[in-house]
Specification:
By secondary structure, this protein is of the alpha/beta class. It has 15 helices and 15 strands.
Length: about 450
């Protein structure tokens, strides 16, 4: 490094021009890590967002507050909702003319305001974030006046319209500040039109700027971390499993399910969200479900456990295990993920049942040839099994393996595949043949 570079100020800049989600949190983590590696003097976030997921915003907020490198934010038009929380966490805020900051009421995916327990958490988080920047204590006579650098009541008013601040928020509506208002009330250090003006207002001279560049891999991972894409992948996983179980031997549905599972888990694993044990939960669920369908008769504990493990694996893989705490506020991300998984799976199951009856059995369907839809009648010359099987009806034999419900039996010196009519039959028990079906003898215990 040259002497000029040693004497210059290194600013590491990255952009958040998107919804605050897992991808935005990913960019933030990588950017901060790179800034630390380069020994940057300032981190500058160029921000324009209408908000997003609270858990991702909280993670970004915490990263900013814990940063040993000063963090500046340049609001380019909008810092609404989650964007306001992120901005308030920064050491300095600069805004473009006509920009806005505020409107941080918590809403669900439909835009409906969520219950007050979530608003309470957001109010406290906004207040504590504003308070983190300190205050001046002034003693006037017998009174002690605390003058906050960023008034926490203003931050609270961005969430709760009931917060009354004379001259600031007295309309009974959620507070949103313009650039001039933010400067007036201490929520903006200055108005700037571009990054160059931000640097000038910050009083930084002899600047070098290093910028985070989004790679092709980043774009691909961000695409698959999108909630809509994850929902589609979950539906493909469920649909693939259903079609393969209903029409075994096709192969394509199973391949589709495995490909969708890989595309679902791989980005989450690369991001450090999906852990090995969570992926193993999903695999164990598939194994239990297969055992219930192909080995164990009926549908009971094994099948239910398999479905539960599949849902748990898909759900927990979306949640950050590092920062997660078992309290009311941090349970919310799990509930949101669980809701996404369950709704996507149910919708896929219903559609799979409907499409199965339409696509694979309809006379006009191009997929009809993929499954056997006709019956070969004995009267037409077809014989499903050798005559020997029919001749064994009424004969007695012994189970060579446990039948649950299928296994091996012996009649005389011959070994046959068999299945029991009811329940299970242990190894070494005497049986009698009651019929035959699909190349197997049907037997019952004597």
């Amino acid at each position: 490094m040259s002497q000029a570079e040693n004497d210059s100020t290194l600013i590491y800049k990255f952009d958040i021009f998107r919804e605050i989600d897992k991808a935005a949190w990913r960019y933030t983590q990588k950017s901060f890590a790179e800034a630390v590696k380069l020994k940057a003097d300032i981190i500058l976030i160029h921000l324009n967002t209408y908000g997003g997921a609270l858990d991702a915003a909280d993670s970004i907020r915490t990263k900013i507050l814990n940063s040993k490198i000063p963090v500046y934010v340049f609001i380019d038009n909008n810092a609404a909702s989650a964007g306001a929380l992120i901005s308030i966490a920064a050491d300095r805020i600069y805004m473009r003319k006509g920009a806005n900051i505020g409107a941080a009421t918590v809403v669900d995916q439909t835009g409906k305001v969520v219950p007050d327990k979530y608003q309470s958490f957001m109010r406290s988080m906004m207040r504590s974030t504003a308070e983190s920047h300190g205050n001046d204590t002034i003693i006037s006579g017998e009174d002690t006046i605390i003058r906050w650098k960023r008034d926490p009541k203003i931050a609270e008013a961005m969430v709760d319209p009931r917060t009354f601040i004379p001259g600031v928020n007295d309309t009974g509506k959620v507070l949103t500040l313009t650039t001039s208002e933010a400067i007036k009330y201490g929520y903006c250090e200055g108005e700037a039109e571009n990054i160059a003006e931000v640097i000038e207002l910050a009083g930084v001279r002899n600047v070098r700027i290093s910028e985070y560049k989004i790679s092709a891999l980043d774009s691909v991972i961000s695409f698959f971390l999108n909630t809509v894409v994850q929902s589609i992948l979950i539906m493909l996983i469920v649909a693939g499993i259903y079609f393969e179980l209903q029409h075994p031997g096709i192969g394509l549905p199973l391949f589709l399910a495995l490909a969708a599972a890989a595309l679902y888990f791989a980005p989450l694993y690369l991001e450090g969200l999906a852990q090995n044990w969570e992926i193993l939960l999903f695999i164990a669920g598939l194994v239990l479900l297969a055992l219930e369908i192909f080995v164990i008769p009926g549908f009971g504990v094994t099948g239910i456990s398999g479905i539960a493990l599949i849902i748990m694996g898909l759900t927990l893989s979306m949640v950050d295990n590092v920062s997660f705490k078992f309290d009311r506020e941090h349970i919310s991300p799990i509930m949101q993920s669980l809701f996404l998984v369950v709704i996507s799976a149910l919708f896929s199951a219903v559609m799979s049942i409907y499409l199965s009856s339409k696509l694979l059995t309809s006379v006009r369907s191009p997929f009809r040839k993929l499954v056997l839809s006709s019956t070969e009648q004995v009267g037409e010359g077809y014989i499903s099994v050798e005559p020997e099987y029919a001749n064994r009806i009424g004969e007695k034999g012994t189970t060579l393996t446990m039948l649950r419900p299928v296994g091996k039996i012996s009649i005389g010196n011959q070994v046959y595949d068999a299945k029991c009519d009811i329940g299970f039959i242990e190894k070494g028990k005497e049986i009698i043949v009651t019929g035959y079906d699909a190349g197997q003898l049907c037997v019952k215990k004597l």
